Each structure stands twice: as C-alpha cells, then as structure tokens.
C-alpha cells in the first residue's frame, strides 16, 4: 500500500503544480492584456434597419419576397393593384389634351383677329381718303355758295356726303380699337390657358408618379425582415410593409466606461470577438467617439439637481468600423467583446 500511496501523492503534486502553473500563466497574460488594452462587453453589432413603406394606398396584388430573404437594389417586392391609378393617369391625359385643344382654337382666333386689324387699317385708309375728299368738296361748295355760284341744295347735298364720310371714318377707327381690345382679351385668355396647361401637365406627372408607387422595390441591397403582409390586404400610404437590413454597412457600437476612453483616438486598432463565434477574432478601427454619454441621449436624461444624487460611472458610445469585408455571418444585434489597445 505504501508504494501506491507514494505514487499517488507524486502524481497529485504534479497535477497541482501543472494547474498552478497554467493558472499563473493565464493570470499573467490577463494582467498584461489588461494593462495594455481597454475592454468592454457592453457592445453590439449595428446596421441600418429601415422600414419599406407604401407610398400609396390600395390592395396588395402580388408579393414577390419571402421572409428573411436576401434582395438586391431595385428588386420588386410588392405590387399594389394599379387599376385606379391607371384610370387617374388616363383622366389626367384627357384633361391635358382638352387644354391643348382649347389653346389651339384660341391661337387660331388670335391669328384671325390680328388679320382683321390689317383689314381695319385698310378700311381706315379708304375712309380717311373719302373723308378728306368730301372735306375739300364741302369747303369748295361753301365758297361757291357765298359767291352765289352754287345753290343751297347743292351745298346741303355735299354737306350730307361729308357727314357720311366723317361717320364712316370714325366707325373704321372705332372698329380698329374694338379689334385691339378683342386681341388683348384673347391674349389674357391665352395666358390663363397656358397656366392651366402647366397645371394639367403637373397633374399628369403626379398621376404617373403615384402609378409608379404601386410597384415597391428594394431601396438597396440587403436582407429583409419578418413578413407581416398578405396578398389582398389593404394598405395605407405610409404603412410599413417589411423592414430591410443594409448588409453593406455594419459596425460595432461599444459603450466604454468614462474611465477607459482617456487614451482613445479615431483610427486606433480594435479587436472584436463575437459571442456567437468561438475562436474567431475580427479587427476594426475606431471611427467616432460620441460627444456625450449615452444617458444624455435618452428621452428623459437624469437630473442630478433634485437632491438625491448617486454617482454612477457613465459610458461613452464608441463607433468601431470592421476591417473585414465579408460580414455575411455577422448579424445586427449580436453581442461582442471589444478590446482597444490603450497605448
């Protein structure tokens, strides 16, 4: 029994020495790491997660995606029944054509009226020549009457012809003024129709835009979230249909204690260990250090002037950018441990 006990004691002592040695080695490594690195496990992977919303209301006609599917920018996700919006486009097109037709008719009226002014000017010239002739005849017969070389009857006949020529001359001039006023009126109506034309063109463009909104596409490449809609369901403008995660932009937000960031600067190297992946280390660099503690960004920040004060170590958000380009396995929201070299 004695030899067996002695062997067991020796073996036990060797195991204890090995365990102590390993413990000392790991503890020493921890002390070296702790003295050179600032570390926190209050960190998560972040990414842009945006809702894809309907721009117009209507019934869902087709759904072209599955839950948590990977999509590319421009892929068609949802099609809304567009019959109502096609009708509105046709209605806007008809209204635009109506204004164009009225504008064409009005242009023809303006051209005709402007041509009429040339006729009026010719009539004025003829009437003026006739009036001048009768004016001279009247003056001559007035002198003849005074010299008793013409009768009163002849003078009165010439006077009547003079009055007629004068009235015709005045009428011709008034017709020209009336035609000018008519052209001004038509020009004013033309300006109104031009304004209405722009309005109808804008209405048609708006109707086409709304028609385009019936086809909902992915705004960028990424991964979709939960599917909560069904074909035939009515949706309203602004209603969220499915969230999309931007797979092209991922980073880590690490909340370091205020006592840890003294020597941190933008561009410093960082090691990132994700809880979900054993023995896999990602690398990154500090991209930004927040200008305030996280509590100051909260909806109701703490007010220490109330009299009840308990000092709590604050945390500063630090944004860390991945150096790796293939982050398909890294998911937004995963917990990570971040280590930043202190010196």
Structural commentary:
The mean pLDDT is 84. The chain starts with a helix and ends with a strand. The chain is rod-shaped and about 180 Å long. Helices cover 47% and strands 25% of the residues. Strand 9 and strand 10 form a beta hairpin. The longest helix has 64 residues. With 343 residues, the protein is of the alpha+beta class.
Question: What are the main properties of this structure?
Answer:
alpha+beta; single chain; about 25% strand; about 350 residues; 4-stranded antiparallel β-sheet
Oligomer: single chain
Distance between the termini: 59 Å
Secondary-structure-based class equals alpha+beta
Percentage of residues in helical conformation:
40-55%
Question: Rg, please?
Answer: 47 Å
Largest sheet descriptor: 6 strands, antiparallel, barrel
| Run of helices and strands | HEEEEHHEEEEEEEE
Give a count of the beta strands, DSSP E runs of length 2 or more.
Answer: 12
Mean pLDDT: 84
| Low-pLDDT segments, ≥5 res | none
Side by side, the strands of the main sheet go 1-8-11-10-9-12
Please give the count of helices: 3
- Overall geometry comes to rod-shaped
What fraction of the residues are assigned to beta strands by DSSP?
Answer: 25-35%
């Amino acid at each position: 029994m004695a030899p067996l006990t002695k062997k067991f004691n020796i073996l036990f002592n060797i195991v204890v020495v090995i365990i102590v040695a390993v413990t000392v080695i790991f503890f020493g490594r921890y002390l070296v790491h702790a003295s050179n690195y600032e570390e926190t496990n209050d960190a998560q992977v972040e990414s842009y997660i945006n809702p894809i919303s309907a721009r117009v209301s209507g019934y869902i006609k087709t759904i072209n995606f599955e839950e948590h599917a990977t999509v590319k920018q421009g892929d068609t996700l949802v099609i809304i029944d567009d019959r109502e919006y096609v009708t509105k486009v046709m209605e806007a097109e008809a209204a635009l054509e109506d204004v164009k037709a009225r504008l064409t008719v009005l242009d023809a009226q303006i051209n005709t009226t402007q041509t009429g002014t040339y006729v009026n000017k010719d009539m004025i010239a003829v009437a003026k020549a006739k009036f001048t002739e009768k004016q001279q005849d009247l003056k001559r017969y007035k002198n003849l009457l005074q010299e008793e070389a013409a009768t009163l009857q002849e003078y009165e006949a010439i006077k009547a012809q003079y009055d007629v020529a004068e009235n015709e001359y005045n009428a011709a001039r008034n017709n020209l003024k009336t035609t000018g006023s008519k052209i001004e009126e038509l020009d004013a109506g033309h300006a109104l129709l031009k304004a209405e034309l722009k309005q109808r063109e804008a209405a048609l463009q708006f109707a086409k835009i709304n028609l385009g909104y019936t086809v909902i596409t992915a705004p960028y490449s990424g991964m979709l979230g939960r599917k909560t809609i069904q074909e035939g369901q009515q949706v309203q403008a602004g209603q969220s249909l499915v969230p999309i995660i931007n797979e092209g932009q991922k980073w880590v937000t690490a909340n370091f204690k205020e006592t840890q960031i003294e020597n941190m600067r933008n561009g410093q190297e960082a090691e990132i260990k994700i809880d979900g992946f054993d023995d896999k280390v990602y690398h990154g660099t500090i991209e930004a250090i927040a200008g305030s503690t996280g509590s100051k960004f909260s909806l109701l920040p703490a007010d220490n002037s109330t009299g009840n004060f308990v000092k709590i170590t604050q945390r500063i958000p630090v944004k860390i950018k991945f150096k790796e380009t293939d982050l398909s396995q890294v998911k937004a929201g995963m917990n990570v441990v971040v280590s930043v070299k202190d010196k």
